[in-house]
Amino acid sequence: MFKKILIANRGEIALRIMRTCREMGIKTVAVFSTADRDSLHVRFADEAVCIGPPPSRQSYLSIPSIISAAEVTGADAIHPGYGFLSENAEFSRICAEYGIKFIGATADQINSMGDKATAKATMKMAGVPVIPGSEGLLESVEEGKVLAKEMGYPVIVKATAGGGGRGMRIIKDESEFQKAWDDAKMESGAAFGNDGLYLEKFVEEPRHIEIQIVGDQYGKACHLSERDCSIQRRHQKLVEETPSPILTPELREQMGQAAIKGATAIGYEGAGTIEFLVDKHGKFYFMEMNTRIQVEHPITEEVTDFDLIKEQIKVAAGEPISGKNYTPKLYAMECRINAEDAGNNFRPSPGKITQLHFPGGHGVRIDSHVYAGYTIPPNYDSMIAKLIVTGQSREEVITRMKRALQEFVIEGIKTTIPFHIRLMDDAGFQSGQFTTKYLESFDFSGL
Does the pLDDT of residue 117 top 80, yes or no? Predict the structure, then answer.
């Protein structure tokens, strides 16, 4: 087992990893930018190293700075958390080169899933259902039009290096193809330095369902059931829950087995998720694989009583997984509390937290790095807390979540708490009958 782990991240996920390390008797090293000098992850670590100024590229994305911090402190492993360098194949490779264990996927595994066209081809070969579309990248608009005619409109053009909805355009008929192609190519080139595009059949009334998997170094993998991430705005998740209101036991079993097929096809090591779209007919299609821990992993932990961070560390140290597939007996939901003004187009609201009170009680968990007097920097993601509740039924979870949200007090900044309270009262949400487009018609006025 590792003696010292450097956590190449910040905020709540850095704290989350530190807690498990402490329980396992492993020393921790925090890295921080000058903007995060007063963050709790810096205070709670056994050691802390400043790695640069506020801009991410000069700190949390600086591989030389992080490797130097690991060498100086004698860390024998690095946990990347999520975001930043967590899915960076070059970082994984350099860690291996320096004899530091990267707690996550190998460089080859990250590469095979990082390019969406390659990932789709890999999953198709493994027998995982994929959305009909182009075999690899499109060479021209004309090629795309021919394929779209064969598949039938609507279709969607996507950036192969995409994420967060950038480089994506829905095309309803041939007259829209040229403009959508040009716009997607320009946006993906600017955002990712890669303007490669591919085409897919557009899935109507989709649900976004992900399967949590864990694989070890011996080719074995298991799944820990699903999370429904369909409540999202501009492809950014706001609420996640498990189990999904729409999955039958048969569909859950099919998706779980498909996820294991996909993971074992690449010999996947560590925690990851296979992401699917489920259409209105109950058919599911592979969308992408995330080769890291997810923001929403706590809801899976709560319904399975399984520490995913601990499992990541054990697998990285060469221990085998239990091999058990989990089916949740409880229900759990997570609301992402962001420093944003939901009534003003989710405008970021950095600044000083003047008053803070976290909710509590049975079935309530808070993952957060903020405190009264803490100043939220404008340089990073706006998520400041995750509110997770667990219960015996979905109805109980919604009632408990609303109660916890009403107890949650944050003053000095705007947050998404008022939005979440309104969502818990929304009849469509309560029914469980929503799609990834649900918030496009949601009433945000007066929040």
Answer: no
